[in-house]
């Protein structure tokens, strides 16, 4: 069970050369975490292994983004996105995440690999207000409909910008 952590305004920067790597089973439980993940998140390996990956989910992250992420993964698609994660001490860090299905010899998904790197500040300036609005929509809509309503807002935003989520985040990452 995730301990109650009070978020702070302290941000950790990830070095340009750092890659945060983890692997999960089909239910999102961590089966592997590299040392950089442990260092940045401030969790020991024993605290991470077997724990849901959402142990690092920051409350500023809309549930709609994670619903979208799982929709993509269930279709055996790669997910690219920006994620704000919570450290054990309440501080946070932004990442550009790439999550891919881990296929077994029978081509069936047996888990997921996630590689995260530093998110550009210019991308965070665009994505943070969008995520904040999605979170506000989720709060107003309540737990039952919140994620669906925030995805609808995201889809409207993307339509107005003539983009897909993947194209948007890849473009923001490159700039």
> What are the secondary-structure elements, in order, as H or E?
EEHHHEEEHHH
Number of strands: 5
Q: What is the class in the CATH system? A: Alpha Beta
Biggest sheet, open or closed, and with what strands and sense?
A: 5 strands, antiparallel
CATH architecture: 2-Layer Sandwich
**Ranges with pLDDT <50 over ≥5 residues?**
none
Shape: globular
Using the CA coordinates, give the radius of gyration. Answer: 16 Å
Task: Report on the architecture of this protein.
This protein is an alpha+beta fold. The chain has one domain (20-174): PAS domain (Beta-Lactamase, 2-Layer Sandwich), CATH 3.30.450. It is 39% helix and 22% strand. The protein contains 6 helices and 5 strands; from the N terminus they run E-E-H-H-H-E-E-E-H-H-H. It has helices spanning 35-41, 45-48, 63-74, 121-141, 146-160, 165-174; strands spanning 20-24, 30-33, 79-86, 92-103, 109-118. Strands 2-1-5-4-3 form a 5-stranded antiparallel beta sheet. A hairpin with a 5-residue loop joins strand 1 and strand 2 (30-33). Helix 3 (63-74) crosses helix 5 (146-160) and helix 4 (121-141) packs across helix 5. The chain is globular, with a radius of gyration of 16 Å. The mean pLDDT is 95.
Keyphrases for this structure?
single chain; 175 residues; alpha+beta; Beta-Lactamase; five-stranded antiparallel sheet; 6 helices; 5 strands; globular
A few lines on this structure:
With 175 residues, the chain is α+β, with helices and mostly antiparallel strands. It has helices at residues 35-41, 45-48, 63-74, 121-141, 146-160, 165-174; strands at 20-24, 30-33, 79-86, 92-103, 109-118. It has a five-stranded antiparallel beta sheet with strand order 2-1-5-4-3.
């Amino acid at each position: 069970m995730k301990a109650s952590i009070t978020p702070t305004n302290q941000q950790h920067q990830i070095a340009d050369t750092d890659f945060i790597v983890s692997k999960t089973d089909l239910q999102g439980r961590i089966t592997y975490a590299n040392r950089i993940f442990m260092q940045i998140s401030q969790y020991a390996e024993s605290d991470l292994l077997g724990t849901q990956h959402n142990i690092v989910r920051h409350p500023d992250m809309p549930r709609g983004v994670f619903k979208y992420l799982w929709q993509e993964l269930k279709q055996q698609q790669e997910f690219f996105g920006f994620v704000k994660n919570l450290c054990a001490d309440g501080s946070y860090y932004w990442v550009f995440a790439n999550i891919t299905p881990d296929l077994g010899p029978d081509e069936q998904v047996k888990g997921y690999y996630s590689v995260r790197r530093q998110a550009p500040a210019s991308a965070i300036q665009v994505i943070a207000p969008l995520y904040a609005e999605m979170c506000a929509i989720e709060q107003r809509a309540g737990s039952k409909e919140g994620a669906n309503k925030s995805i609808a807002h995201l889809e409207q935003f993307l339509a107005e910008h003539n983009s897909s989520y993947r194209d948007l985040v890849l473009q923001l990452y490159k700039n």
